[in-house]
Design goal:
Structural class: mainly alpha
Helix content: over 70%
Strand content: under 5%
Radius of gyration: 16 Å
Order of helices and strands: HHHHH
Largest sheet: none
Number of helices: 5
C-alpha cells in the first residue's frame, strides 16, 4: 500500500510540474485577446490573421478542460493522472497554435507571445492548485 501512495504522490508532483502546458486555456477571454493584440503591437493584417487562430485555440482548450473535468470557477479538477493527460492534450494545442502564429508574428512578437503564455500559465496553475 505504501508503494502505491508513494507512486501517486510522485505522479501528483509530476502533474503539478507539467501544468505550464495547461495555460491559456480558460484565462484567455476576448478582453485578454484584445490586451494581447495591443501588447504584441500587431498590424491590422496580423490582427486579422491571428484572431481566428486564437479563437480556435481557445475553443480547443475549453473542450480539453471539459473533457478532463476541469472547471476553474469551481475548482473542479482531475487527479494526478488526469492532470498528466490534460497536460499532454494542452501541449499539442500549444505546439500547433505557436507554429501557426509563428507564420504571422515577427520573432520579437513571438517572444512576447511566449511571455504572455508564461504569465497566463501562472494564473491557471494558481487556480488549479488552490
Amino acid at each position: 500500500m505504501r508503494r502505491i501512495e508513494k507512486t501517486l504522490a510522485v505522479l501528483a508532483i509530476v502533474a503539478v510540474a507539467l501544468l505550464p502546458s495547461v495555460a491559456v486555456a480558460q484565462s484567455l477571454m476576448p478582453e485578454d485577446v484584445a490586451k494581447m493584440e495591443a501588447r504584441l503591437q500587431l498590424t491590422p493584417e496580423q490582427r486579422s490573421g491571428i484572431d481566428p487562430i486564437l479563437r480556435e485555440s481557445m475553443n480547443e482548450r475549453r473542450a480539453v478542460f471539459t473533457k478532463h473535468g476541469v472547471d476553474l470557477n469551481t475548482g473542479q479538477r482531475p487527479g494526478a493522472l488526469g492532470l498528466i493527460k490534460l497536460n499532454s492534450d494542452m501541449k499539442k494545442i500549444n505546439i500547433t497554435t505557436r507554429a501557426r502564429l509563428s507564420k504571422i508574428l515577427k520573432p520579437t512578437q513571438l517572444k512576447e507571445y511566449d511571455k504572455i503564455v508564461v504569465e497566463q500559465t501562472a494564473v491557471v496553475k494558481k487556480q488549479l492548485l488552490r
